[in-house]
Amino acid sequence: MQSSDRWAVGLTFPAVLIVAVFYVFPIAQVLSLSVTEPSVGFSNYVQLFTSPAVFRITQTTLSVSLWTTAFAVVGSYIVAFALINMNEGTRRLAMFMVLVPFWISVLVRAFAWITILRRGGVLNSVLLDLGLIGSPLELVHNRLGVMIGMVHYMMPFAILLLYANLSGIDRRLMLAARSLGARPWTVFWRIWLPMSAPGIAIATLFVFIFSLGFLITPALLGAGRTVMVAEYISVQITNTLRWGVATGLSSILLLVVAILIFFAMRQPQLRAAFQGRAQ
Amino acid sequence: MIRKLSGLPSSGFAWILLAFLFLPVLIVVPVALTDRKYLSLPENGLSLQHFASLLNWETGWLPSMVLSLIIAVVATVISVAAAAIYAMGAWSLRGWWPSLTRVLLLSPLVVPPIIYAVGIFKLWAWLDLLDSYTGVTIVHVVLCLPFSVLAIGASLSHLDPRLIQAARSLGARPPTVYFRIVLPNIMPGVAAGAIFSFVSSWDEITVTLFITSRHVVTLPRRIWTSIADSVDPALAAVATLALAVTVIVLLLTTYFRHTQLVKSSKPLNRSI
């Protein structure tokens, strides 16, 4: 090994050491606890797969995550598509409306939604005053509230992903199609949509992966009535101290995310980003 | 001509969606200005009393802001320094080591934070670091690293490797090459990494929630408790300040045309 290579390897050590000791080791410990706590074996997993509570939590998590992903990706595509068709000034305004919520903390957003959606909240007051409803609607502290919060959280992220993808598409293709007599809808269905399929796939996968792990938003907007897997794990640790269940569920969640990432990595763009190559 | 290409009726709907994204966060402003003692819209006029109460050390908001600021600065400095030297080293290496370590360093971006929270809770309980400043700062360093590695790595991928060869052939030793030649060329990446790190530490809640209790109360932790209590309008005042800072910074970056940097490379904060 040349002296310059030794130098280069040495430079990588501090960061790798921090992550190995304070990230990889604790997560490896979660995996190992799941088969050793309280006794060695797969009893935790047997318990997880037979527990009605865990079954219900899994069902809620999957259903909320899938619906969130569907709404967020479709909505984001509409916004991203509009963004690339705007002129510079309008786009700057629209981009500002995307970036403000993008940078605002999840807690502030959850608080804003509670203020708007709760029984005596802004939206119910307005609707009651207008006489559109007779009694307050249940908009939050249920599954609807959780999904509003999650879609609102994921959309700016998905919009930026899709916008980057859509702006990389060669516009002359559409001009060519139009000049050959294709109608706007045909251009959209037969050119825009297929051309942006990789971007849509990445956005869908990432929104879904992130949705599975949501803790803060469901905890605040679900208020214990819509419990997703992350909140369930957190309750096992802080309240009931069932480490076996908590680490077992964490391990399954990690496995699911790893499988999804494995599929995502088959996208060359994404693999390049993770390996640090210029695209 | 190109603008009106599609002619689809999607634009109106897009503005409704944009309103859905942007308008709800504005609600914190009137609530912060309420003249009441509880969370509500103003009734008989506006009042700045809840902003004033933030400045009162006894209410706990100011100590939490100072604490979050200190933790964010320390975590940012450590993570950016570690990430910068890591990225420079990995950039000049080939083979499995840089690929593997990069995946490890970036994994907090995709692994659900609850899994890390469970693991670090166990480790900190064992090392007696629960509810300690050191414990929180180390966790924030780990969670900031991927943002710095991505931003600095992006800067490095634009750097011409021949620059290094030239320096080497002129007799520069490795430390000179890295710290006198490479480092000054990736300062934009270092700056972007520092901004992203600072924001993600300042906002971090999921893992911090697990490893702190009464002693170490960061700003997000205090906001969390305050939302659960759902009484004090000072919460809305804090949210308004956060909103104001975000808006000002975004307007400045748009004005100075660094928007590209801000919007393209910030990955999503995983503390959700």
Helical amount among residues of chain A, as a percent range? over 70%
Kindly report how far apart the N and C termini of chain A lie. 29 Å
The helical percent of chain B reads over 70%
Low-confidence stretches of chain B: 1-7, 259-265
**Which stretches of chain A are poorly predicted, pLDDT < 50 over at least 5 residues?**
none
What is the rounded Rg of chain B? Answer: 23 Å
Number of strands of chain A: 0
Main sheet properties of chain B: none
- Total beta-strand segments of chain B: 0
Counting helices, strands and paired strands, the structural category of chain B is mainly alpha
Mean pLDDT of chain B: 87
What global shape of chain A is seen? globular
Count of helical stretches of chain B: 14
Element string of chain A (H = helix, E = strand):
HHHHHHHHHHHHHH
Question: What's a quick, concise take on this entry?
Answer:
The complex is a heterodimer of chains A (279) and B (272). Chain A is built from 14 helices and no strands.
Structural notes for this entry:
The complex is a heterodimer of chains A (279) and B (272). Chain A has helices at residues 3-33, 43-50, 52-84, 88-103, 106-117, 122-129, 143-167, 172-179, 184-195, 197-212, 216-222, 229-238, 243-264, 268-275. Chain A has 279 residues and is mainly α. Chain A is globular, with a radius of gyration of 23 Å. Chain A has 14 helices and no strands. In chain A, helix 1 packs across helix 13 (243-264) and helix 8 runs antiparallel to helix 9. By secondary structure, chain B is an all-alpha fold. Chain B has 14 helices and no strands. In chain B, helix 3 (49-55) crosses helix 13 and helix 4 packs across helix 7 (133-156). Chain B starts with 9 loop residues before the first helix and ends in a 7-residue tail after the last helix. Chains A and B meet through helix 1, helix 3, helix 4, helix 5 and helix 7 of A and helix 1, helix 4, helix 5, helix 6 and helix 7 of B.
What order do the helices and strands come in, and which of them pair?
The complex is a heterodimer of chains A (279) and B (272).
Chain A: H1 3-33, H2 43-50, H3 52-84, H4 88-103, H5 106-117, H6 122-129, H7 143-167, H8 172-179, H9 184-195, H10 197-212, H11 216-222, H12 229-238, H13 243-264, H14 268-275
Chain B: H1 10-26, H2 28-32, H3 49-55, H4 61-91, H5 96-106, H6 113-127, H7 133-156, H8 162-169, H9 174-185, H10 187-203, H11 206-211, H12 219-229, H13 234-255, H14 259-265
Helix pairs in contact in B: 3-13, 4-7, 4-10, 7-10, 8-9
